[in-house]
Amino acid sequence: MSKPKPVIGITGDFRPERYDGAALSWFNTGYYDSVIAAGGIPLLLPPFENEQDLRQIMERLDGLVLAGCILDLDPTRMKMHPHPAVKIMPKRREDFDRKITELAIEQRVPILAIGSGMQLVNVLCGGTLYQHIPEDLPRSIHHRDPVEKNLRHVLEIVPGTRVDSIYGPGEVRVNSNHHMAVNQLSNRFRVSATCPDGVIEAYESIEDDWFCLGVQWHPESNTASALDLQIFEAFVEAAAQQDQQQEPLHQPMDILPMTSALPRAA
User: Fold this and answer.
1) Which of 12, 27, 36, 258 is a good FRET partner for 43, with 20 to 30 A between their CA atoms?
2) Which segments in the chain show pLDDT lower than 50?
3) Is the domain 7-244 a CATH 3.30.470.20 member?
4) Are the C-beta atoms of residues 24 and 90 closer than 8 Å to each other?
């Protein structure tokens, strides 16, 4: 009899009700197709609110994929005045993403954090963000192009990291569609890869017994390369190992308290 496949939770996108349509949730197919291809069973997570329900669902998960979003985290929650280029994601989505991410960090559930998910994990663990790369890092290359949707750039991978073991030797190019980025990296992580301009493109947990990988590009996208599936394979393998442990690691970690929107900084 084959071993049970690991169950992987995937966060989705959300749009509140508006004048021309009902509220809705959706999940980009690439996320769950990639989990399936890597040997996991996807469990799609809509933005529900009850904390006891969240804790119950976390007991069933062997790993968590934090999906990206075309909209941005709310800078006021990071005590920053929003830049004009920032377009804030719906509060219900960010509330849910924060709650479930806090639980995953606390319980050391394997995490694959993509795009804004990568940014959120860094913030919850004490790191900071750039709000708008073109102004915060004026010598940077283009990381988002509103016209050229298939923008790509080279990765500079740090030797000896998980990303190095995932991709192996040779040039790696990834898709790019973001204007926020990691500024100060949490001391719980190390840099795994950067763009040639120095922007952090990937980080990983410094703890060998906790798989937490954040990537700024989108390995689930139809613009991704065939090599990008290896990220999901490494993640699902880690989730499978977590599932096989008789006593999963649920040691608490210090995380920033979840709060509602904070006043804007002066």
Assistant:
1) 258
2) 246-253, 257-266
3) no
4) no
